[in-house]
């Protein structure tokens, strides 16, 4: 079953013009925050083994859809094996960019303290703040934080 799930994940992620989920998939070396200038950017570090990460994906999908013109979400995966990330992604709608950081270079650069950790950047690429962890009960507060910064 795991093989089938992984293959399905590959089909979903790389279906060319019929990409159903991720906007684009990048390797860590290709990620550049400056490419999102002009939008509020929510950078989220996650891993397939992270239980709170599973709760955060529906939240990110909802807020990405609500604010698609003003907000860019970039979900950076830190799994050592890409297959683990792909298997995870099969279960979630991801209308945002996915970055694969298998070597942990971006996680080290951002000094990620745990999974998930999110960073919010303004339209000029300046850090607004950081949020560590994710609990469903905190999603309203997190949504308000993001929305307030979009409105500025």
Automatic annotation (TrEMBL):
Highest taxon listed in the record's lineage: Bacteria
Alphabetized InterPro entries for the sequence: AhpC/TSA, Thioredoxin-like_sf, Thioredoxin_domain, Thioredoxin_ResA/DsbE_sf
Short name of any one Pfam family annotated for the protein:
AhpC-TSA
Q: Does S-adenosyl-L-methionine show up as a keyword for this record?
A: no
Residues covered by the Thioredoxin domain = 22-151
List the GO molecular function terms: antioxidant activity; oxidoreductase activity
Q: Would the keyword Signal turn up in this protein's UniProt record? A: yes
Gene3D superfamilies tied to this protein: Glutaredoxin
* TM segment ranges: none
Name the chain's protein. Thiol-disulfide oxidoreductase ResA
Organism from which the protein derives: Granulosicoccus antarcticus IMCC3135
**Cleavable signal peptide:** 1-22
Keywords, comma-separated and alphabetical: Signal
Classification lineage: Bacteria, Pseudomonadati, Pseudomonadota, Gammaproteobacteria, Chromatiales
């Amino acid at each position: 079953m795991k093989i089938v799930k992984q293959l399905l994940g590959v089909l979903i992620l790389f279906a060319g013009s019929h990409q159903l989920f991720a906007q684009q998939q990048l390797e860590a070396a290709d990620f550049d925050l400056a490419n999102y200038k002009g939008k509020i950017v929510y950078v989220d570090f996650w891993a397939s083994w992270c239980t709170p990460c599973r709760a955060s994906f529906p939240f990110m999908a909802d807020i990405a859809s609500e604010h698609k013109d003003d907000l860019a979400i970039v979900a950076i995966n830190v799994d050592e094996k890409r297959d683990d990330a792909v298997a995870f992604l099969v279960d979630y709608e991801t209308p945002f960019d996915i970055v694969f950081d298998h070597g942990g270079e971006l996680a080290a650069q951002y000094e990620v303290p745990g999974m998930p950790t999110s960073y919010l950047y303004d339209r000029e690429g300046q850090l607004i703040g950081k949020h560590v962890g994710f609990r469903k009960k905190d999603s309203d507060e997190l949504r308000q934080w993001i929305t307030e910064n979009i409105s500025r």
